[in-house]
User: Fold this.
Amino acid sequence: RLGFRVELAVRSGSRAGGCQVREAGGPLGAMACALVPFCSFQDLESARDFLCSHLRQGGASAGAGVKESSGDKAANWEDDSWGAWGEGGEMQEPEEEEEDESASKIQASSWLQDCVVSLSPTNDLMVIAREQKAVFFVPKWKQSEKGKEEMQYAVGWSGSLNVEEGECVSSALCIPLASQKRSSTGRPDWTCIVVGFTSGYVRFYTENGVLLLAQLLNEDPVLQLKCRTYEIPRHPGVTEQNEEMSILYPSAVVTIDGFSLFQSLRACRNQVARAAASGNENVQPPPLAYKKWGLQDVDTIVDHVSIGIMTLSPFDQMKTASNIGGFNAAIKNSPPAMSQYITVGSNPFTGFFYALEGSSQPLLSHVALAVASKLTSALFNAASGWLGWKHKQEEESVQKQKPKVEPATPLAVRFGIPDSRRHGERICLSPCNTLAAVTDDFGRVLLLDVARGLAIRMWKGYRDAQIGWIQTVEDLHEREAEKMDFSPVGSSQGPSRVAQFLVIYAPRRGILEVWSTQQGPRVGAFNVGKYCRLLYPGYKIMGLNNVTSQGWQPQTYQICLVDPVSRTVKTVHVPFHLALSDKKSERAKDMHLVKKLAVMLKAKTLNLDMVEAGVKELILDIKYPATKKQALESILANERLPLSSLTTITQTLMDTLRNQEGECVDEGLLQFCANKLKLLQLHESVSKINHLDMQSDLVPSDNDLAKLLRLDEREFARLQMLLENYKLQDTRLSVHFAEDKDGTLPVKTFLEHLECEKDTIEVKKLEESEYVALGSFFFWKCLRGESSTEEMCDILVSAGFSPQRLLSLLLSVWLSKEKDILHRTQSVCCLHAALSLLSKMTVAVDELWDSQSVSPWWQQMRTACVQSENNGAALLSAYIGHSVTAQITDSIAEKKFSQITVGADTDPWEALSLDTEYWKLLLKQLEDCLILQTLLHSKVGKKRSQASSVQTEPPGRLSVKKLLEGGKGGIADSVAKWVFKQDLSPPFLRLGWKKEESEEGPPETGGIIVAEVEEDQTELETILELLHLAYQQFPCSLELGILHAHCCWEYVVQWNKYPEEAHFLTRSIDHLRCIDNAHVQHGIALMMWNTFIVKRLSAATYLMDKVGKAPKDRLCRRDVGMSDAAMTSFLGCCSDLLQILMEADVRSDEMQLPVLDTEDAWVSVEGQISLVELALEQKHIHYPLVEHHSVLCTILYGIMKFSMKSVKPLSLFDSKGKNAFFKDLTSIQLLPSGDVDPGLLTVRHQFLTKLLTAVVEAQCSSQKNRGSPEESVVLSVKDRDWPALAVDLAQHLQVNEDVVRRHYVCELYNYGLDHLGEEVNRSQGGAAMTSVPLGQQKEGSSRSCLTAFYAL
Assistant:
C-alpha cells in the first residue's frame, strides 16, 4: 500500500489527438472545448490600488496599469537626474532602467497571484483579499461600448477585515445559502463570506461587509478553508454525504456540520436586520457543532480535502484489520463508517487519515449574539462562549483574554505516499469524490485514486500549476437511437453518463489545458495570460437536502479563469463526447468526417461531380443526427457549390432517412431536410421566372395613367409638377457596384433569410437592406415589367408565403428604389397589377368585409407609406392603393346593390367606404410631406465662404410618421432648420407671402441673399416658388410669426453650440424683431434670456469687473467661452434682446393672445408642446428689472466696443443694484431709488465722459481712413447712435444730461469734427455749448478754437 505507480504523460505528444492550441471554441463549435468569457470587471484598477498600495506609489502606477506608469514617469521627468549632467553626475545605465521597468510591469500585472481570491459558484459575489484588506465584487448588468447588455463586476464593498493587530487574511470562501421559500427560482437567498486569518480566527461576513460571527477554534494560523455541499447520489449504493465546512491548521483540521452552520448564519443575519431596525432585540441561535482532529505522524501539512463518509468492503475491512491488529485481530460483522481526509505536504508527501464515526463526540460552540447599533459595532468571538459589548477602555483586556480553545482529538495517519524529497502544494478533489489531483514543487501533477490510495497518472512540466475539475453529463438526445455495442447502456432510454476532465493552468507558459482523466488524451488547450488565477470552488449551494434539492436547478459554474490583464472572467465548456476513446466513440468518427468534409469544401479547385459524390458519401456515413444536421448546414452555407448540387445532396439525405426503419428515423432531421429542400426548390423556381425576359417598350400615356389612378387632368398635372420638383431637388447620391445585380440573391443568403415551418414560410428578423434585397429577388423584375407578376405570386403563395408578407416585401422594394421608379412610368402600371392580384386573394380582402370598418390589408399598406422617408414613391403607391381600394369597393358594393335593386332605374353613384376616406387623408398628408421635403432639399446655388460647417450639413429626411410625432411645432421647426442651413435673411421669408411683389425684382434686403439674387435670379425664384407652395399647404403651421419664432430659436440654439459664430446670435435677434405678435415675441425673448444668455452675461460681467477694462482674448475664452470679438457682438445682442423684451411687454397690453390653429390633415399630431405654446406660457416681466439689466448691457457693450480701460462696470451701481443683477426677470427685486451718493454720481459722470471721448475718437478715425484700404477694419460706430445712448444712460444713471451733451460737442470740436459739432449744437438750439469755458477744451487746431469762441 505504501508504494505507488506512475504513468507519465507527455505534454505535447501525439496522445493529445492532434489538438492545437487555440483561443476559444475552434471551427467545430459545440463539438470542441471552448473558453467562453461570461463576465468582466468594471473597475479592477481601483481594487488593485486599494489592495496593493505599493504598486500605486511605485513606478508602476496602479491607476491605469502599465500604461499609466509610463505616463507618470513622463510627467515627472523633472524629478529624475537631468541636472546631474552639469554637475558631472553619472547617468544610469539603460540596461538597468529597462530591467527596472520590466520588473515593475510584471509586478503590476501579477498582483493577483499574491491575493486570496474566491468566487461564489452561483457567480453572485467575488472576494479579492490581501493582507488586512478585502474587496467584494458584485455582478451588474450594464451596457457595453458596442451597445450590448453584458454582466460586469462592480465594487460592492471594500475595507479592512482585521480585528486584532498584525493578523492577515490567509483564506476565503464565498458560500451561497439556499432560500427557504417554496417559490424560489433556484438562486441563493444570500451569500456568506468566510474568511480565515493568521491569528486563527474564522469570521463570517455578509455581502455588505457586516460581521456576523467570529470563532477561534485553534490558535494556529488558518491554512485552508474548504466546503462540501449536498449532492444527490448517482447510484443507490453510493453513501449520501452531509454538508460540512473544513478548516485546516498546521497540525489540526476542524469540520463544522453544514446544517448547524446554515442555521447559525441565518439566525445571525436575521439578528443583524432586527438590530438595524430596533436596536435592542436579542435571539439565541442554535449552537455550532464541530469536530477537531489533531493530525499526527506528519511533518508539514499545506492543504487537505475531506472525502466524507465511506464504508469499506468486507475484504478491505479484513485486510485493514490484519494490517493494524495482526493475525488475531477481531473483525466486526458490519464494516464501520469512517470519515476520510487526505493531506499534502512532506513526510509523507500525501497522507490518508480515517476517523471512525462515533470515536469522537462533536463539540458545541454556544453562540451568543451581540446587538449592533448605529453608534457602536458588535465584536463576535466564540469558542466555548461569545464576547459581547466592550467599551474602549476594555478593548485591551478583551484582546488579552482570548476564548478557551478546546483540545483536539488525536488522529494518526493510516498510510501515505512516501517521498522525502517531494513536497506537496495543492490537492483538488474531483466532483465524484473518486479522484484527486495533487501538485508538487517538482512541477508535477499527480492523479490519485482516493479509494485505493495510489497515484495512477503523472504529468510533467507544470511548475506553479493551478488545477480544477469539470464534470460533464451526457445529453441523452444526442445518442443514436439504435443499440450500440460500445455503449454500456442498451438503449437511449438509459441514464446519462458522466465524464470528468482535469483542467491544468500553467502560468509560466500561459496555457490552459483540459485532459481526459486516467488514460485519456489532452482534449483542449488555450493560450491565456501568464498572470491569471484558476478558481475551482468544488461546492454549490449550502442548505439543500434530499427533499429540497429535487425541485432546484441552480445555475452554478464549475471552474473559471480570472484574467487581470484583460479584466475578464472566463469559463471552460467541454462536450461529453471528448471523454470517449477513439475506438469506441462514434462521435469521434463523426468529428473526423466533419473535418474531412470541411477540407473538401475548402479545396482550391472543385470538380463538381467528384465533390458532389464525396459529400454524399461523407454525410451518409455520419451516425449522429445532430452531427448530420451540422454537416448539412455547412454544405448549404458553402457559396461554391451550385444550386443543383445542393438540391441533389439534400434530396439524397432525405431519401436515405425515409428508407430507414421507422423507430430509427430522427424526425427532426427529416423535417429539417424537407424544409431546406423546399426552400432550394423555391429559389430555383423564382430564378427561372426572373430569367424569362418579357421586355415591354410600351410607355403608358398621361391619360392612361390618370385613368389608372382615378385622377382628372388638373389633379394629374399637379401630381406631375410636384414629382418633377421633387426629382430636381432630390440630389441624394446612390452607389451601385458592378457585381450587384437586382433580381438575384445567393442561395446561402436566401436560406439564411427564410425559415420554413410546416406549410408556411416566414422571413427572419432582418436588417432593412437585407429585407429589401429579398423583396428585390421576388418582385423587382415584376415591377420593371420584365417578368410575370401572376406567376411569381402563384409560386410564392403555393410555397407558403402569406399575402401580407408578400405585400410587405413588394412595398419595401417599391419604396427603396424611388429614383428608378420616378424615372420609369410603366412601373406604376406594374405595381397596380401586382397590388390588384394580391388583393384578390381570399385571405387578403374578404368579400364579407364591411365598408364602414377599416381593412387590415389596406391599413398595412398605409402604415408602410406613413413610415417611409421616400415621399415620392410613397405618394405614388398611395394613389395606386387608393385606386385599387376604390375598384374593389365598387365591385363589392355593385354586387350588393344589384341584389337589392334589380331592374330599377338608378342614377350613376360612387361607393364610399371608411378605407377610402383614410386614403384621402393619407394622400393629403403625403402631398404636404412631399412639398415640405422638396423645399428642405432646395439650396442656394452659390457656396458662401462665410457659411459655417454646421450650415453645410445635409438635411434630414422627412416622413408622415415623423411629422405626426414631432408635435404641433414640428413642421415649422423643420423649415427653420432649412432656413438656418441656407442662412436666409428674414425679409426673404416674407417674399413667399408676397409672391407678386417678388416678380418685379429682388428687394434690397441688406443680407447675403441680395448678391445671390443678382447672380442667380432663376434659382432664387424657384426657391420662392417652393416656399410659396409650402405656405399654401401649411397656412397655420408656417404662419410668418410662428416661422420667425422657430428660426430665432434655431439660430440661438446653434449659437449656443458654437459661440464663436457671432452672426448666428445676430440673425436670431433679427428674426425676433420680425415676430408680429407681442405675446409670442415676449415669450421667445424671455426664454432666450433664461436658457442661453444670462449665464454667459454673468460670466462676462464679473470678468470685466475683475480686470477693470475690456478683457483680452485669452481671458474671454477661459471665462466666457468665446473670443473677445465674439463677446463684443454678444453684448450688443444682449442689449438688443432686452430692448425688444421691454417693447414687447408694452405692446402686449394692447394686443390679444394669438389663436393657434392646425391644418385639418394634421390635427392628430402628437408629441412635445410647441415652441409658441411654451412662449405663451411665460410670465410677464418686471419692467424696471429688465431696464436695469439693459443699462448694464449697454455699459458692457460700450466698454468692449471701444476697448475702454480703468472701468469697473459694477462700480457704477450701489449695493441694491448689484444684488438685483441676473435674478429672474419675472420676479420683483429691490432696485435703487431716491437720491444717489455724490461719490457714485462722480464715478458715473467720469464713465460717461470716457465713453463719449471714445466715441468721438472712433468717429475721427473713421473720417481719416475713409477711402483707404483699411476702412473695413476701422472701428465703426454706425451700428447704433452712441451719443443718444450716452444721453439715455445719463438719464438712467441720474447724471445731468446737458453736461453729457456739452462734453460730446466739446469733444467733437477738439478732434476737428467741426461740422458734426455745429450740427449737434444746431439740433439742440445752441444750448449744448452754453456756458462752456474755453479752458475745458483741449489743445487742437486754431480753427477749432476759433469756431468754439464764435459759438460762445
About this structure: The radius of gyration is 45 Å. The longest strand covers residues 149-160. The chain has a mean pLDDT of 80. DSSP finds 42 helices and 33 strands in the chain.
